[in-house]
Amino acid sequence: MKLYTYIIKRAIFSLITLFGVIFITFIITRSIPGDVVFLRLPEKATLEDYLAEKERLGLDKPILVQFIIYTGDLLTGNWGYSYSYRAEYHIWSLIMTHLPRSLEIMFISLIIAIVLGIFFGKISAMHRNGFRDIIIRIFAYIFISIPGFVIVIFFMQLYVFTPIRIFPLYGYKTTGYPEPPLITGIRSFDCLLSGKWYLFYDYIWHIIVPVSAMIIIQMVIIIRQTRSSIIEALQMDYVQLAKVKGYKEKTIVKRHVMKNILTPIITSAGIQFPIVLGGMVAVEIIYNIDGMGSLLQNAVSGSDYPLIIGIIFVFSLCVIISNFIVDLIIVLIDPRIKLK
């Protein structure tokens, strides 16, 4: 199968998956308890006001008709307006305001987790069954068995009970500090591009604790994957041949093994993306970071169906795109893998 044919087939499969996610999410959100029309009306509203508002929101139509209309609007870029904001913010604007903040923290933590995970996984494999290997494996086993949100709470409690509280606990900026000029929507970039270095340092200072929690969540999986991949590769014939030729194991790992284990590591990182999204939601809610997690919390508490579906649509799109990119990278770096 040629590469462009593979890309087209993967794109079609991704679109079908995305449509299924939208349909299931739409049905589930309509089952959430609470009357969104009632929540939007003032206290002295009459029955006529209630019916008029319900008709305006399109909630008087059959649920299948609502889904068809919503899907059409979604594909044409008309995502509608939020129910939970009195000023009627456009859903696209709300998501595009909050999404860069979440993606920034996610990618910072993911990159650091990959680097540290490979580093410690390599050390563990090179000293297998030794003291360093045992310590690293115990660390990985402990944190891999704990749910992500518990790790996030653990870091908060660790901070609370630490005598010297160095890092901020909540938010992403010091009270009274201004927002940087909106250039890219990514706060660290906006601070740097506008020359507001003090805002950049303040932002990094505030996200150290939540980013550290997310790094731990992702890193332990990569440590285990790297360690097992290196140990498995060291049993291969080409490694044994290199040892016979007099090469040291450290040299073999550096020159040959690390290149051959990239595929499982990249796959592991790609599989983690949905986990990272879930962890990001917990981090933002607990640490009061105004990103997609807090936006989703407000949408659920306000029975804001269009906003909930919009957020999950974006989350699903991010996961599908990340999986597609991972598959493409694996095919490009390892020609031995057939396009199926």
The largest pleated sheet is described as:
none
Low-confidence stretches: none
CATH topology label of the domain at 95-291: MetI-like fold
Radius of gyration, in Å, reads: 24 Å
Sheet/helix structural class? mainly alpha
Cα end-to-end separation: 7 Å
Strand content: under 5%
Total number of helices: 15
The CATH architecture classification of the domain at 95-291 is Orthogonal Bundle
> N-to-C SSE series?
HHHHHHHHHHHHHHH
Q: What oligomeric state do these chains adopt?
A: single chain
Number of separate strands: 0
CATH class of the domain at 95-291: Mainly Alpha
Supply database-style keywords.
mainly alpha; about 70% helix; about 350 residues; globular; single chain; MetI-like fold; 15 helices
What does it look like?
The protein is mostly helical and 340 residues long. It has a domain at 95-291: MetI-like fold. It has 15 helices and no strands. It has helices at 3-29, 36-40, 47-56, 63-75, 91-126, 131-144, 148-160, 187-193, 197-233, 237-244, 249-260, 262-271, 273-286, 292-301, 305-333. The mean pLDDT is 80.
